[in-house]
Specification:
Blueprint (H helix, E strand, L loop, with lengths): L6 E6 L14 E7 L5 E6 L4 H17 L4 E5 L9 H4 L7 H12 L10 H12 L36 H6 L14 H18 L4 E3 L19 E5 L15 H18 L15 H11 L8
Parallel strand pairs: 1-4, 4-6, 5-6
Antiparallel strand pairs: 1-2, 2-3
Length: about 300
């Protein structure tokens, strides 16, 4: 079986509100093959999301010139728990895309990293429940009647689920409703999804978002005919990363994950990870493919 990809680009995103480098900032790891087909790795640590987006576009443009297909993994959810799009009464045949378009309209993310993620969470809460739920988490100064620093209550049977199917499968993944504090993937998703949307849309049919546009299934070379970029959600904690002396943990994680996927692809084992396990419930597959997304490599 041939490799699906020539390059593996792993992005550790950040919702930081000011330019920052080092720990807890954006890291981009690129694993690609040199002229002798040996894998080589380099990482980048742009200070802002805008710089990161520009860098990512340049990396992908370079790979395109070399006619090399890239797997791009973002470490934040690409979809929300089932029912989110419907609860917001968003229009469109594809719930995941309706949410992407809605966030793109709402999010303001400036060149200096200042952003309105707490305002977006607050407004979505207002539309969903009229109160500070389900999104939560913000600095005290950003507290609003519809967004509180701490979680105000647990999720009940009538509420949107606290976790996606993939979060449960990945064990330890945080809830997307959490917008602040350690592991606040919600804040990252709110500012990250519009960036992923721009990267994807700039490439037209040559880019696909997994599993929404590829199907939740093992991928073949035929499935990726004409595709240069596959965008997927990744979870760095799925792979053990040991930082080298002086290496930031985030940098070690993007390196370890890029290496992990490259080795699986080399062995012909990566393609199967794009599909569910044989005993996955049918409703889980539908939810993942239509709105929730999935974490590449998370077992059901």
């Amino acid at each position: 079986m041939s490799r699906l990809f020539s390059a593996y680009v792993i992005v550790d995103w950040s919702a930081a509100a000011k330019p920052t480098t080092g720990a807890d900032s954006v890291w981009i790891g690129v694993m690609k093959r040199d002229v002798r087909f040996r894998l080589s790795f380099e990482s980048f640590n742009p200070a802002t999301r805008q710089e990161a987006e520009t860098k990512l576009a340049a990396i992908l443009d370079d790979l395109k010139k070399r006619n090399e297909r890239a797997l791009v993994g973002f470490d934040f959810p690409l979809g929300f728990p089932r029912g989110f799009s419907q609860a917001l009464a968003l229009k469109g045949d594809h719930p995941w895309r309706a949410v992407w378009d809605q966030l793109n309209k709402m999010v303001k993310d400036k060149a200096d990293n200042t952003n309105n993620r707490f305002g977006v969470g607050s407004e979505l809460n207002r539309r969903l429940t009229g109160g500070p739920f389900p999104f939560w988490g913000c600095p005290p100064k950003d507290t609003l009647t519809t967004l509180q620093p701490k979680k105000t209550r647990e999720h009940g049977p009538e509420d949107l689920p606290e976790f996606r199917h993939a979060d449960v499968a990945a064990k330890g993944a945080a809830s997307i409703w959490k917008l602040y504090y350690n592991g606040s993937v919600g804040g990252q998703a709110i500012v990250g999804i519009p960036a992923a949307r721009r990267l994807r849309d700039a490439r037209g049919d040559a880019a696909r978002v997994w599993p929404f546009e590829t199907g939740f299934k093992a991928l073949t070379e035929a499935d990726l005919e004409g595709v240069q970029v596959v965008i997927a959600e990744v979870y760095p904690s799925l792979v053990k990363a040991t930082p080298a002396p002086g290496e930031v943990k985030d940098a070690a994680q993007v390196r370890a994950l890029a290496e992990h996927f490259a080795k699986l692809d080399e062995a012909g084992k990566l393609a199967a990870l794009f599909g569910p396990s044989k005993d996955a419930p049918a409703d889980l597959v539908v939810d993942a493919q239509s709105e929730e997304g999935w974490i590449l490599g998370a077992a059901i």
